[in-house]
UniProtKB/TrEMBL annotation:
Organism, as annotated: Brevundimonas kwangchunensis
UniProtKB keywords: DNA-binding
SUPFAM superfamilies: YjbR-like
Record's keyword annotation contains DNA-binding: yes
GO molecular function terms noted in the UniProt entry: DNA binding
A Pfam family reported for this protein in Swiss-Prot or TrEMBL: YjbR
Name by which UniProt lists this protein: MmcQ/YjbR family DNA-binding protein
Length: 114
């Protein structure tokens, strides 16, 4: 999946927005103001995962701990094009749901997240 494809998937999720807090070469996808996926300048992608997924993905070498965000259980894929689109889309949807679950009830209601 390329940068445009990542954007299409992420922005299709409920309440998702895009901004560029680290400059125009980085895309940060957020829900309720909290980031769930970030595309880097060189095309790699980082996203939030569960504790179990972090262990599995990093131990088997499919992903690496995301720079600066690993302690919050984020992984980085230097080559997202090497992954199946459906698999990446599922990871992004899960990242979105993990972050959305941390929002207040009011924020979730305002974003139409239930």
């Amino acid at each position: 999946m390329d940068r445009a494809g990542i954007g299409k998937v992420c922005l299709s999720l409920p309440g998702a927005t895009l901004d560029h807090p680290f400059g125009e070469h980085h895309d940060a996808y957020r829900v309720g103001g909290k980031m769930f996926v970030m595309v880097g300048e060189q095309g790699g992608v980082s996203f939030k995962v569960s504790d179990i997924a972090f262990a599995v993905l990093t131990e088997d070498g499919r992903a690496r701990p995301a720079p600066y965000l690993a302690r919050a259980k984020w992984v980085n894929l230097p080559e997202p094009a090497a992954w199946l689109d459906d698999e990446l889309a599922e990871h992004f949807a899960i990242a979105h749901s993990i972050i959305a679950a941390k929002l207040t009830k009011k924020q979730r209601a305002e974003l139409g997240l239930g």
